[in-house]
Protein backbone atom coordinates (compact mmCIF):
# COMPACT_ATOMS: atom_id res chain seq x y z
CA UNK A 1 0.00 0.00 0.00
CA UNK A 2 2.07 2.86 -1.26
CA UNK A 3 0.94 6.31 -2.25
CA UNK A 4 0.48 4.83 -5.70
CA UNK A 5 -2.39 2.82 -4.34
CA UNK A 6 -5.42 3.94 -6.35
CA UNK A 7 -7.63 3.57 -3.30
CA UNK A 8 -5.47 5.91 -1.22
CA UNK A 9 -5.50 8.38 -4.12
CA UNK A 10 -9.27 8.10 -4.29
CA UNK A 11 -9.47 8.66 -0.50
CA UNK A 12 -7.42 11.83 -0.97
CA UNK A 13 -9.49 12.96 -3.94
CA UNK A 14 -12.79 12.61 -2.09
CA UNK A 15 -11.32 14.28 0.99
CA UNK A 16 -11.49 11.38 3.45
CA UNK A 17 -10.90 13.14 6.76
CA UNK A 18 -7.73 11.78 8.35
CA UNK A 19 -8.67 13.00 11.80
CA UNK A 20 -11.98 11.19 11.71
CA UNK A 21 -10.20 8.11 10.41
CA UNK A 22 -7.69 8.32 13.28
CA UNK A 23 -10.57 8.76 15.75
CA UNK A 24 -12.37 5.68 14.37
CA UNK A 25 -9.16 3.65 14.55
CA UNK A 26 -8.51 4.93 18.10
CA UNK A 27 -11.98 3.84 19.23
CA UNK A 28 -11.61 0.46 17.49
CA UNK A 29 -8.20 -0.06 19.09
CA UNK A 30 -9.61 0.91 22.52
CA UNK A 31 -12.33 -1.73 22.07
CA UNK A 32 -9.83 -4.35 20.96
CA UNK A 33 -7.42 -3.52 23.79
CA UNK A 34 -10.30 -3.79 26.26
CA UNK A 35 -10.93 -7.28 24.87
CA UNK A 36 -7.26 -8.09 25.24
CA UNK A 37 -7.17 -6.79 28.82
CA UNK A 38 -10.34 -8.71 29.55
CA UNK A 39 -8.79 -11.95 28.31
CA UNK A 40 -5.59 -11.44 30.32
CA UNK A 41 -7.44 -10.43 33.46
CA UNK A 42 -9.96 -13.26 33.14
CA UNK A 43 -7.12 -15.75 32.80
CA UNK A 44 -5.47 -14.32 35.88
CA UNK A 45 -8.77 -14.33 37.79
CA UNK A 46 -9.67 -17.93 36.90
CA UNK A 47 -6.31 -19.29 37.93
CA UNK A 48 -6.05 -17.12 41.01
CA UNK A 49 -9.55 -18.11 42.14
CA UNK A 50 -8.46 -21.74 41.82
CA UNK A 51 -6.04 -21.06 44.70
CA UNK A 52 -9.05 -19.98 46.80
CA UNK A 53 -7.61 -16.78 48.26
CA UNK A 54 -9.80 -14.55 50.51
CA UNK A 55 -12.49 -13.12 48.24
CA UNK A 56 -11.41 -9.54 48.92
CA UNK A 57 -8.17 -10.29 47.04
CA UNK A 58 -10.26 -10.86 43.94
CA UNK A 59 -12.76 -8.03 44.19
CA UNK A 60 -10.64 -5.44 42.36
CA UNK A 61 -10.02 -7.86 39.51
CA UNK A 62 -13.72 -8.80 39.37
CA UNK A 63 -14.70 -5.13 39.11
CA UNK A 64 -12.02 -4.52 36.47
CA UNK A 65 -13.35 -7.47 34.41
CA UNK A 66 -16.83 -5.91 34.50
CA UNK A 67 -15.44 -2.50 33.55
CA UNK A 68 -13.45 -3.97 30.64
CA UNK A 69 -16.52 -5.94 29.48
CA UNK A 70 -18.53 -2.73 29.35
CA UNK A 71 -15.76 -0.62 27.79
CA UNK A 72 -15.18 -3.25 25.09
CA UNK A 73 -18.84 -3.09 24.00
CA UNK A 74 -19.01 0.69 24.36
CA UNK A 75 -15.84 1.38 22.35
CA UNK A 76 -16.93 -1.06 19.63
CA UNK A 77 -20.27 0.68 19.36
CA UNK A 78 -18.63 4.12 19.19
CA UNK A 79 -16.16 2.83 16.61
CA UNK A 80 -19.04 1.55 14.45
CA UNK A 81 -20.71 4.98 14.62
CA UNK A 82 -17.49 6.83 13.78
CA UNK A 83 -16.55 4.44 10.94
CA UNK A 84 -19.96 4.48 9.32
CA UNK A 85 -20.15 8.23 9.51
CA UNK A 86 -16.71 8.48 7.92
CA UNK A 87 -17.67 6.03 5.16
CA UNK A 88 -21.01 7.72 4.47
CA UNK A 89 -19.32 11.13 4.25
CA UNK A 90 -16.69 9.70 1.89
CA UNK A 91 -19.37 8.08 -0.26
CA UNK A 92 -21.41 11.29 -0.38
CA UNK A 93 -18.32 13.21 -1.45
CA UNK A 94 -17.42 10.57 -4.07
CA UNK A 95 -20.99 10.66 -5.40
CA UNK A 96 -20.89 14.46 -5.58
CA UNK A 97 -17.68 14.38 -7.60
CA UNK A 98 -18.91 11.64 -9.92
CA UNK A 99 -22.20 13.45 -10.54
CA UNK A 100 -20.39 16.72 -11.22
CA UNK A 101 -18.00 15.00 -13.62
CA UNK A 102 -20.85 13.29 -15.44
CA UNK A 103 -22.83 16.54 -15.53
CA UNK A 104 -19.81 18.45 -16.90
CA UNK A 105 -18.87 15.73 -19.38
CA UNK A 106 -21.18 17.20 -22.01
CA UNK A 107 -22.38 13.79 -23.20
CA UNK A 108 -26.06 13.96 -22.39
CA UNK A 109 -26.58 10.46 -23.65
CA UNK A 110 -25.72 7.39 -21.54
CA UNK A 111 -25.63 9.40 -18.32
CA UNK A 112 -28.16 7.23 -16.52
CA UNK A 113 -26.25 4.10 -17.52
CA UNK A 114 -23.03 5.65 -16.19
CA UNK A 115 -24.79 6.57 -12.96
CA UNK A 116 -26.05 3.03 -12.47
CA UNK A 117 -22.57 1.60 -13.02
CA UNK A 118 -20.82 4.01 -10.67
CA UNK A 119 -23.31 3.47 -7.81
CA UNK A 120 -21.77 0.06 -7.06
CA UNK A 121 -18.25 1.48 -7.26
CA UNK A 122 -19.10 4.18 -4.72
CA UNK A 123 -20.52 1.48 -2.41
CA UNK A 124 -17.26 -0.47 -2.76
CA UNK A 125 -15.29 2.63 -1.69
CA UNK A 126 -17.47 2.90 1.43
CA UNK A 127 -16.95 -0.80 2.10
CA UNK A 128 -13.18 -0.35 1.78
CA UNK A 129 -13.35 2.18 4.64
CA UNK A 130 -15.65 0.17 6.94
CA UNK A 131 -14.37 -3.33 6.25
CA UNK A 132 -10.88 -2.51 4.97
CA UNK A 133 -9.01 0.54 6.27
CA UNK A 134 -10.32 0.69 9.85
CA UNK A 135 -10.06 -3.05 10.70
CA UNK A 136 -6.53 -3.15 9.22
CA UNK A 137 -5.33 -0.23 11.33
CA UNK A 138 -7.05 -1.59 14.45
CA UNK A 139 -5.52 -5.02 13.80
CA UNK A 140 -2.05 -3.50 13.51
CA UNK A 141 -2.35 -1.49 16.76
CA UNK A 142 -3.80 -4.42 18.70
CA UNK A 143 -1.27 -6.90 17.33
CA UNK A 144 1.63 -4.72 18.47
CA UNK A 145 0.01 -4.27 21.91
CA UNK A 146 -0.59 -8.01 22.33
CA UNK A 147 3.03 -8.81 21.44
CA UNK A 148 4.26 -6.11 23.85
CA UNK A 149 2.17 -7.51 26.72
CA UNK A 150 3.29 -11.03 25.90
CA UNK A 151 6.93 -9.91 25.85
CA UNK A 152 6.59 -8.87 29.49
CA UNK A 153 5.24 -12.32 30.38
CA UNK A 154 7.51 -14.40 28.15
CA UNK A 155 9.74 -13.04 25.36
CA UNK A 156 9.81 -16.38 23.59
CA UNK A 157 6.01 -16.59 23.50
CA UNK A 158 5.96 -13.01 22.24
CA UNK A 159 8.13 -14.01 19.28
CA UNK A 160 5.87 -16.97 18.48
CA UNK A 161 2.79 -14.77 18.82
CA UNK A 162 4.33 -12.09 16.57
CA UNK A 163 5.06 -14.66 13.86
CA UNK A 164 1.57 -16.19 14.16
CA UNK A 165 -0.03 -12.73 14.02
CA UNK A 166 1.99 -11.87 10.92
CA UNK A 167 0.77 -15.06 9.27
CA UNK A 168 -2.85 -14.43 10.23
CA UNK A 169 -2.86 -10.65 9.81
CA UNK A 170 -0.52 -10.05 6.87
CA UNK A 171 0.25 -13.22 4.91
CA UNK A 172 -3.27 -14.68 4.86
CA UNK A 173 -4.94 -11.38 3.88
CA UNK A 174 -2.38 -10.84 1.08
CA UNK A 175 -3.16 -14.28 -0.29
CA UNK A 176 -6.87 -13.68 -0.07
CA UNK A 177 -6.51 -10.29 -1.78
CA UNK A 178 -4.50 -11.83 -4.61
CA UNK A 179 -7.17 -14.49 -5.02
CA UNK A 180 -9.84 -11.85 -5.11
CA UNK A 181 -7.87 -9.73 -7.64
CA UNK A 182 -7.49 -12.81 -9.83
CA UNK A 183 -11.24 -13.49 -9.71
CA UNK A 184 -12.03 -9.88 -10.54
CA UNK A 185 -9.51 -9.50 -13.39
CA UNK A 186 -9.60 -12.96 -15.03
CA UNK A 187 -13.29 -13.36 -14.30
CA UNK A 188 -14.16 -10.00 -15.88
CA UNK A 189 -12.13 -10.80 -19.02
CA UNK A 190 -13.73 -14.25 -19.33
CA UNK A 191 -17.20 -12.84 -18.69
CA UNK A 192 -16.65 -10.25 -21.41
CA UNK A 193 -15.65 -13.00 -23.85
CA UNK A 194 -18.67 -15.09 -22.84
CA UNK A 195 -20.98 -12.09 -23.37
CA UNK A 196 -19.47 -11.36 -26.80
CA UNK A 197 -19.77 -14.99 -27.87
CA UNK A 198 -23.40 -15.22 -26.68
CA UNK A 199 -24.30 -12.01 -28.52
CA UNK A 200 -22.62 -13.23 -31.70
CA UNK A 201 -24.28 -16.66 -31.48
CA UNK A 202 -27.74 -15.19 -30.85
CA UNK A 203 -27.71 -12.23 -33.22
CA UNK A 204 -25.90 -13.83 -36.10
CA UNK A 205 -27.16 -17.42 -35.78
CA UNK A 206 -28.45 -17.84 -39.34
CA UNK A 207 -25.35 -16.23 -40.93
CA UNK A 208 -23.07 -18.43 -38.83
CA UNK A 209 -24.94 -21.57 -39.93
CA UNK A 210 -24.60 -20.54 -43.58
CA UNK A 211 -20.88 -19.80 -43.13
CA UNK A 212 -20.43 -23.06 -41.15
CA UNK A 213 -18.91 -21.14 -38.28
CA UNK A 214 -21.58 -21.80 -35.65
CA UNK A 215 -19.61 -24.69 -34.12
CA UNK A 216 -16.48 -22.54 -33.75
CA UNK A 217 -18.41 -19.75 -32.04
CA UNK A 218 -20.11 -22.22 -29.68
CA UNK A 219 -16.74 -23.85 -28.88
CA UNK A 220 -15.37 -20.38 -28.10
CA UNK A 221 -18.36 -19.78 -25.82
CA UNK A 222 -17.81 -23.05 -23.96
CA UNK A 223 -14.12 -22.26 -23.59
CA UNK A 224 -14.83 -18.73 -22.27
CA UNK A 225 -17.40 -20.14 -19.84
CA UNK A 226 -14.93 -22.75 -18.59
CA UNK A 227 -12.18 -20.16 -18.14
CA UNK A 228 -14.58 -18.03 -16.09
CA UNK A 229 -15.32 -21.03 -13.86
CA UNK A 230 -11.57 -21.70 -13.60
CA UNK A 231 -10.86 -18.09 -12.62
CA UNK A 232 -13.51 -18.26 -9.89
CA UNK A 233 -12.21 -21.66 -8.68
CA UNK A 234 -8.61 -20.44 -8.49
CA UNK A 235 -9.62 -17.32 -6.59
CA UNK A 236 -11.83 -19.25 -4.18
CA UNK A 237 -9.09 -21.84 -3.55
CA UNK A 238 -6.66 -19.08 -2.62
CA UNK A 239 -9.23 -17.40 -0.41
CA UNK A 240 -10.03 -20.70 1.32
CA UNK A 241 -6.31 -21.41 1.87
CA UNK A 242 -5.92 -17.91 3.31
CA UNK A 243 -8.94 -18.35 5.57
CA UNK A 244 -7.49 -21.59 6.99
CA UNK A 245 -4.25 -19.84 7.96
CA UNK A 246 -5.79 -17.99 10.92
CA UNK A 247 -7.04 -21.05 12.85
CA UNK A 248 -3.72 -22.70 12.08
CA UNK A 249 -1.79 -19.69 13.42
CA UNK A 250 -3.98 -19.61 16.56
CA UNK A 251 -3.32 -23.30 17.16
CA UNK A 252 0.42 -22.92 16.70
CA UNK A 253 0.72 -19.93 19.00
CA UNK A 254 -1.46 -21.41 21.76
CA UNK A 255 0.37 -24.75 21.68
CA UNK A 256 3.71 -22.93 21.63
CA UNK A 257 2.66 -20.73 24.58
CA UNK A 258 1.54 -23.80 26.52
CA UNK A 259 4.78 -25.66 25.82
CA UNK A 260 6.85 -22.63 26.77
CA UNK A 261 4.85 -22.14 29.98
CA UNK A 262 5.13 -25.79 31.02
CA UNK A 263 8.82 -25.78 30.20
CA UNK A 264 9.45 -22.61 32.19
CA UNK A 265 7.46 -23.94 35.12
CA UNK A 266 9.18 -27.28 35.24
CA UNK A 267 12.61 -25.72 34.88
CA UNK A 268 11.97 -23.34 37.73
CA UNK A 269 10.22 -25.64 40.13
CA UNK A 270 10.51 -29.20 38.93
CA UNK A 271 6.78 -29.66 38.66
CA UNK A 272 3.82 -27.49 37.78
CA UNK A 273 1.84 -28.45 40.86
CA UNK A 274 4.54 -26.90 43.04
CA UNK A 275 4.42 -23.62 41.23
CA UNK A 276 1.48 -22.20 43.12
CA UNK A 277 3.22 -22.47 46.39
CA UNK A 278 6.62 -21.23 45.29
CA UNK A 279 5.63 -17.73 44.24
CA UNK A 280 8.30 -18.22 41.55
CA UNK A 281 8.56 -16.56 38.12
CA UNK A 282 5.88 -18.77 36.51
CA UNK A 283 2.69 -18.80 38.49
CA UNK A 284 -0.52 -20.55 37.38
CA UNK A 285 -1.91 -17.04 36.73
CA UNK A 286 0.90 -16.37 34.27
CA UNK A 287 0.25 -19.75 32.71
CA UNK A 288 -3.40 -18.79 32.16
CA UNK A 289 -2.40 -15.46 30.62
CA UNK A 290 0.04 -17.18 28.27
CA UNK A 291 -2.78 -19.38 26.98
CA UNK A 292 -5.69 -16.92 26.82
CA UNK A 293 -3.97 -13.77 25.56
CA UNK A 294 -3.04 -15.20 22.14
CA UNK A 295 -6.61 -16.45 21.67
CA UNK A 296 -7.97 -12.98 22.24
CA UNK A 297 -5.34 -11.21 20.13
CA UNK A 298 -6.45 -13.16 17.05
CA UNK A 299 -9.91 -11.64 17.32
CA UNK A 300 -8.66 -8.56 15.47
CA UNK A 301 -6.59 -10.36 12.84
CA UNK A 302 -9.39 -12.80 11.89
CA UNK A 303 -11.39 -10.14 9.97
CA UNK A 304 -8.26 -8.97 8.12
CA UNK A 305 -8.70 -11.55 5.36
CA UNK A 306 -12.08 -10.05 4.58
CA UNK A 307 -10.52 -6.58 5.02
CA UNK A 308 -7.90 -7.29 2.36
CA UNK A 309 -10.59 -8.48 -0.05
CA UNK A 310 -12.65 -5.34 0.64
CA UNK A 311 -9.50 -3.25 0.04
CA UNK A 312 -8.79 -5.05 -3.23
CA UNK A 313 -12.38 -4.61 -4.44
CA UNK A 314 -12.19 -0.94 -3.38
CA UNK A 315 -8.98 -0.50 -5.40
CA UNK A 316 -10.63 -1.75 -8.57
CA UNK A 317 -13.60 0.55 -7.96
CA UNK A 318 -11.22 3.45 -7.23
CA UNK A 319 -9.46 2.95 -10.59
CA UNK A 320 -12.77 3.15 -12.45
CA UNK A 321 -14.02 6.12 -10.44
CA UNK A 322 -10.82 8.15 -10.68
CA UNK A 323 -10.78 7.62 -14.46
CA UNK A 324 -14.29 8.94 -14.59
CA UNK A 325 -13.71 11.80 -12.15
CA UNK A 326 -10.41 12.96 -13.62
CA UNK A 327 -7.79 14.71 -11.51
CA UNK A 328 -9.55 17.97 -10.85
CA UNK A 329 -12.77 18.33 -9.00
CA UNK A 330 -15.09 20.11 -11.39
CA UNK A 331 -16.55 23.28 -9.89
CA UNK A 332 -19.78 22.69 -8.03
CA UNK A 333 -22.52 23.65 -10.40
CA UNK A 334 -24.61 26.36 -8.83
CA UNK A 335 -28.31 25.71 -9.14
CA UNK A 336 -29.54 27.68 -12.11
CA UNK A 337 -31.85 30.44 -11.07
CA UNK A 338 -34.74 30.36 -13.48
CA UNK A 339 -36.16 33.86 -13.74
CA UNK A 340 -39.83 34.71 -14.14
CA UNK A 341 -39.44 36.46 -17.48
CA UNK A 342 -40.62 34.57 -20.56
CA UNK A 343 -37.69 33.87 -22.90
CA UNK A 344 -37.42 33.55 -26.68
CA UNK A 345 -35.28 31.13 -28.69
CA UNK A 346 -33.50 32.32 -31.81
CA UNK A 347 -30.90 30.66 -33.97
CA UNK A 348 -28.90 32.24 -36.79
CA UNK A 349 -27.08 30.10 -39.32
CA UNK A 350 -27.07 27.35 -36.70
CA UNK A 351 -25.22 24.29 -37.94
CA UNK A 352 -25.66 21.34 -35.64
CA UNK A 353 -24.31 17.79 -35.45
CA UNK A 354 -21.89 15.56 -33.54
CA UNK A 355 -18.89 14.82 -35.75
CA UNK A 356 -20.44 15.88 -39.03
CA UNK A 357 -23.04 18.62 -39.62
CA UNK A 358 -26.59 17.35 -39.76
CA UNK A 359 -28.13 20.57 -41.07
CA UNK A 360 -28.30 24.35 -40.83
CA UNK A 361 -31.27 26.30 -39.56
CA UNK A 362 -32.50 29.82 -38.76
CA UNK A 363 -35.35 30.04 -36.32
CA UNK A 364 -37.28 32.44 -34.09
CA UNK A 365 -39.53 31.20 -31.34
CA UNK A 366 -41.05 34.19 -29.54
CA UNK A 367 -41.33 34.16 -25.76
CA UNK A 368 -44.29 31.93 -24.91
CA UNK A 369 -44.29 30.46 -28.44
CA UNK A 370 -44.38 26.84 -29.57
CA UNK A 371 -42.05 25.07 -32.02
CA UNK A 372 -42.13 21.48 -33.25
CA UNK A 373 -39.15 19.68 -34.75
CA UNK A 374 -40.30 16.89 -37.03
CA UNK A 375 -38.65 14.52 -39.49
CA UNK A 376 -37.77 10.87 -40.06
CA UNK A 377 -35.77 8.82 -37.59
CA UNK A 378 -32.04 9.52 -37.45
CA UNK A 379 -32.27 12.85 -39.28
CA UNK A 380 -30.93 14.82 -36.30
CA UNK A 381 -33.95 16.03 -34.30
CA UNK A 382 -32.55 15.10 -30.89
CA UNK A 383 -29.17 16.56 -31.79
CA UNK A 384 -30.81 19.86 -32.79
CA UNK A 385 -32.84 19.90 -29.55
CA UNK A 386 -29.67 19.33 -27.49
CA UNK A 387 -27.96 22.16 -29.37
CA UNK A 388 -30.88 24.53 -28.78
CA UNK A 389 -30.75 23.60 -25.08
CA UNK A 390 -27.05 24.51 -24.93
CA UNK A 391 -26.02 20.93 -24.16
CA UNK A 392 -24.11 20.52 -27.43
CA UNK A 393 -21.98 23.29 -28.95
CA UNK A 394 -23.11 24.51 -32.39
CA UNK A 395 -20.74 23.56 -35.25
CA UNK A 396 -21.34 27.06 -36.68
CA UNK A 397 -23.71 29.97 -36.22
CA UNK A 398 -25.37 30.89 -32.98
CA UNK A 399 -28.23 30.02 -30.71
CA UNK A 400 -29.66 32.50 -28.27
CA UNK A 401 -30.98 30.39 -25.43
CA UNK A 402 -30.00 32.27 -22.30
CA UNK A 403 -28.27 30.18 -19.68
CA UNK A 404 -30.52 29.44 -16.78
CA UNK A 405 -33.73 29.70 -18.78
CA UNK A 406 -33.78 26.43 -20.64
CA UNK A 407 -34.23 22.79 -19.65
CA UNK A 408 -34.05 19.75 -21.91
CA UNK A 409 -36.19 16.71 -21.11
CA UNK A 410 -34.74 13.71 -22.92
CA UNK A 411 -36.48 10.55 -24.03
CA UNK A 412 -34.33 8.47 -21.70
CA UNK A 413 -34.33 10.79 -18.68
CA UNK A 414 -33.76 8.92 -15.47
CA UNK A 415 -36.44 7.89 -13.02
CA UNK A 416 -34.96 7.28 -9.59
CA UNK A 417 -35.66 4.33 -7.37
CA UNK A 418 -37.40 6.49 -4.79
CA UNK A 419 -40.89 7.86 -4.15
CA UNK A 420 -43.11 9.29 -6.85
CA UNK A 421 -42.96 12.66 -5.04
CA UNK A 422 -39.14 12.77 -5.04
CA UNK A 423 -39.10 11.90 -8.74
CA UNK A 424 -40.96 15.13 -9.42
CA UNK A 425 -39.11 17.15 -6.80
CA UNK A 426 -35.84 16.68 -8.71
CA UNK A 427 -37.26 19.31 -11.05
CA UNK A 428 -38.00 21.80 -8.27
CA UNK A 429 -37.25 21.24 -4.60
CA UNK A 430 -40.11 23.35 -3.23
CA UNK A 431 -42.89 21.93 -5.37
CA UNK A 432 -46.01 21.29 -3.26
CA UNK A 433 -48.06 18.08 -3.19
CA UNK A 434 -50.96 19.97 -4.77
CA UNK A 435 -48.80 21.03 -7.70
CA UNK A 436 -47.50 17.48 -8.11
CA UNK A 437 -51.02 16.05 -8.06
CA UNK A 438 -52.19 18.66 -10.57
CA UNK A 439 -49.28 17.92 -12.92
CA UNK A 440 -49.95 14.18 -12.71
CA UNK A 441 -53.64 14.78 -13.44
CA UNK A 442 -52.65 17.01 -16.39
CA UNK A 443 -50.76 14.15 -18.01
CA UNK A 444 -53.59 11.67 -17.36
CA UNK A 445 -52.00 9.92 -14.38
CA UNK A 446 -54.38 11.36 -11.75
CA UNK A 447 -56.40 8.15 -11.30
CA UNK A 448 -53.29 5.99 -11.38
CA UNK A 449 -51.51 8.10 -8.74
CA UNK A 450 -54.69 8.26 -6.64
CA UNK A 451 -54.91 4.47 -6.62
CA UNK A 452 -51.33 3.89 -5.49
CA UNK A 453 -51.07 2.22 -2.06
CA UNK A 454 -48.97 4.99 -0.51
CA UNK A 455 -50.01 7.83 -2.80
CA UNK A 456 -47.09 10.16 -3.61
CA UNK A 457 -44.93 8.26 -1.11
CA UNK A 458 -45.15 5.12 -3.24
CA UNK A 459 -41.69 3.89 -4.05
CA UNK A 460 -40.93 3.40 -7.74
CA UNK A 461 -38.89 0.27 -7.10
CA UNK A 462 -36.19 0.01 -9.76
CA UNK A 463 -37.02 3.50 -11.10
CA UNK A 464 -38.35 3.44 -14.66
CA UNK A 465 -38.45 -0.36 -14.81
CA UNK A 466 -41.36 -0.34 -12.34
CA UNK A 467 -43.57 1.42 -14.90
CA UNK A 468 -44.93 0.96 -18.37
CA UNK A 469 -43.25 2.97 -21.14
CA UNK A 470 -46.27 5.30 -21.38
CA UNK A 471 -46.41 5.91 -17.61
CA UNK A 472 -42.70 6.62 -17.60
CA UNK A 473 -42.97 9.21 -20.34
CA UNK A 474 -45.92 10.89 -18.66
CA UNK A 475 -44.15 11.13 -15.28
CA UNK A 476 -41.24 12.76 -17.12
CA UNK A 477 -43.70 15.15 -18.73
CA UNK A 478 -45.18 15.97 -15.30
CA UNK A 479 -41.62 16.67 -14.16
CA UNK A 480 -41.25 19.16 -17.03
CA UNK A 481 -44.54 20.82 -16.05
CA UNK A 482 -43.40 21.51 -12.47
CA UNK A 483 -39.90 22.54 -13.60
CA UNK A 484 -39.19 26.28 -13.26
CA UNK A 485 -37.49 26.62 -16.70
CA UNK A 486 -38.95 29.30 -18.94
CA UNK A 487 -37.94 27.42 -22.10
CA UNK A 488 -38.84 23.74 -22.11
CA UNK A 489 -37.40 21.43 -24.75
CA UNK A 490 -39.22 18.09 -24.85
CA UNK A 491 -37.84 15.12 -26.80
CA UNK A 492 -40.62 12.75 -27.89
CA UNK A 493 -42.83 13.51 -24.86
CA UNK A 494 -45.66 11.25 -26.02
CA UNK A 495 -43.60 8.24 -27.12
CA UNK A 496 -45.14 4.92 -25.91
CA UNK A 497 -48.40 6.66 -24.93
CA UNK A 498 -51.57 5.15 -26.54
CA UNK A 499 -51.98 6.77 -29.93
CA UNK A 500 -55.38 8.39 -29.23
CA UNK A 501 -54.28 9.86 -25.93
CA UNK A 502 -50.85 10.77 -27.33
CA UNK A 503 -52.47 13.11 -29.86
CA UNK A 504 -54.60 14.72 -27.16
CA UNK A 505 -51.55 15.13 -24.90
CA UNK A 506 -49.42 16.66 -27.66
CA UNK A 507 -52.23 19.05 -28.54
CA UNK A 508 -52.35 20.26 -24.92
CA UNK A 509 -48.55 20.59 -24.80
CA UNK A 510 -48.60 22.77 -27.93
CA UNK A 511 -51.71 24.77 -27.00
CA UNK A 512 -50.57 28.08 -25.50
CA UNK A 513 -53.39 27.78 -22.97
CA UNK A 514 -52.60 24.11 -22.32
CA UNK A 515 -50.17 22.37 -20.03
CA UNK A 516 -47.35 24.95 -20.08
CA UNK A 517 -49.23 28.25 -20.32
CA UNK A 518 -48.46 31.47 -22.18
CA UNK A 519 -45.40 32.48 -20.18
CA UNK A 520 -43.34 29.42 -21.11
CA UNK A 521 -41.73 28.68 -24.44
CA UNK A 522 -42.00 25.07 -25.61
CA UNK A 523 -39.96 23.22 -28.24
CA UNK A 524 -41.13 19.66 -28.99
CA UNK A 525 -39.37 16.94 -30.95
CA UNK A 526 -42.04 14.57 -32.25
CA UNK A 527 -42.88 11.91 -34.79
CA UNK A 528 -46.56 12.68 -34.61
CA UNK A 529 -48.59 14.40 -37.29
CA UNK A 530 -48.81 17.93 -35.90
CA UNK A 531 -51.11 19.58 -38.54
CA UNK A 532 -53.84 17.05 -37.63
CA UNK A 533 -53.93 18.43 -34.11
CA UNK A 534 -55.33 21.77 -35.14
CA UNK A 535 -52.91 23.92 -33.13
CA UNK A 536 -50.73 26.59 -34.68
CA UNK A 537 -47.00 26.21 -34.05
CA UNK A 538 -43.76 27.02 -35.78
CA UNK A 539 -42.26 23.91 -37.32
CA UNK A 540 -38.74 22.86 -38.28
CA UNK A 541 -39.15 20.01 -40.71
CA UNK A 542 -35.97 17.99 -41.25
CA UNK A 543 -35.39 15.67 -44.21
N1 LIG B 1 -23.43 10.87 -29.27
C1 LIG B 1 -23.34 10.82 -30.59
N2 LIG B 1 -22.15 10.86 -31.21
C2 LIG B 1 -22.04 10.82 -32.55
N3 LIG B 1 -23.10 10.72 -33.39
C3 LIG B 1 -24.32 10.66 -32.85
C4 LIG B 1 -24.51 10.70 -31.43
N4 LIG B 1 -25.84 10.65 -31.18
C5 LIG B 1 -26.45 10.56 -32.38
N5 LIG B 1 -25.54 10.56 -33.38
C6 LIG B 1 -25.83 10.50 -34.81
O1 LIG B 1 -26.48 11.69 -35.17
C7 LIG B 1 -27.50 11.40 -36.13
C8 LIG B 1 -28.82 12.01 -35.65
O2 LIG B 1 -29.22 11.40 -34.44
P1 LIG B 1 -30.47 11.96 -33.64
O3 LIG B 1 -30.61 11.15 -32.40
O4 LIG B 1 -30.34 13.43 -33.47
O5 LIG B 1 -31.68 11.64 -34.64
P2 LIG B 1 -33.22 11.75 -34.40
O6 LIG B 1 -33.79 12.44 -35.60
O7 LIG B 1 -33.52 12.36 -33.08
O8 LIG B 1 -33.64 10.22 -34.41
P3 LIG B 1 -34.86 9.50 -33.68
O9 LIG B 1 -36.12 10.10 -34.22
O10 LIG B 1 -34.71 8.08 -34.09
O11 LIG B 1 -34.68 9.73 -32.22
C9 LIG B 1 -27.57 9.91 -36.28
O12 LIG B 1 -26.91 9.58 -37.48
C10 LIG B 1 -26.82 9.38 -35.10
O13 LIG B 1 -26.16 8.21 -35.45
TrEMBL record:
TM region(s), chain numbering? 21-44, 56-75, 133-153, 159-177, 240-261
Q: Which residues form the ABC transporter domain?
A: 340-543
The cellular location(s) given in this protein's UniProt record come to:
Cell inner membrane
Keyword Transmembrane attributed: yes
Which GO molecular function annotation, any one, does this entry have?
ABC-type transporter activity
Record's bilayer topology term? Multi-pass membrane protein
- The ABC transmembrane type-1 domain is annotated at 22-202
Give the matching Gene3D superfamilies: ABC transporter type 1, transmembrane domain (1.20.1560.10), P-loop containing nucleotide triphosphate hydrolases (3.40.50.300)
A GO-annotated cellular component: plasma membrane
PANTHER family reported in the protein's UniProt record: ATP-BINDING CASSETTE SUB-FAMILY B, ATP-BINDING CASSETTE SUB-FAMILY B MEMBER 6
Per the similarity annotation, which family is this? Belongs to the ABC transporter superfamily. Siderophore-Fe(3+) uptake transporter (SIUT) (TC 3.A.1.21) family.
Q: What is this protein called?
A: Thiol reductant ABC exporter subunit CydC
> Which species does this protein come from?
Gordonia spumicola
Amino acid sequence: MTNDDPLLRAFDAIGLRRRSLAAAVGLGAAGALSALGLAALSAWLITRAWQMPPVLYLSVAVTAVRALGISRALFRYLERLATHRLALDAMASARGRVYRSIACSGAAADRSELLARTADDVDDIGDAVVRGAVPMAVGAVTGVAAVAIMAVVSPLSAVVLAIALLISGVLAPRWAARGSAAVIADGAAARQRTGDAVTTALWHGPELVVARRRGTVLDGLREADASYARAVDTGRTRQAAAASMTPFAVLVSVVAAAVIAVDLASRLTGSLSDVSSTGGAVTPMLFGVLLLLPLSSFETTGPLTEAAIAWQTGRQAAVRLTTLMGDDDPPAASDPVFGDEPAAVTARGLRWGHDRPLGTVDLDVPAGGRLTIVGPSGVGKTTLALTLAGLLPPLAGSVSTVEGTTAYFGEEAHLFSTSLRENLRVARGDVSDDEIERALADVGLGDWAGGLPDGLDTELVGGGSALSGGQRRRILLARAIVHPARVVILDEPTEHVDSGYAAELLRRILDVDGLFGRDRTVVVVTHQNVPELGVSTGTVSLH
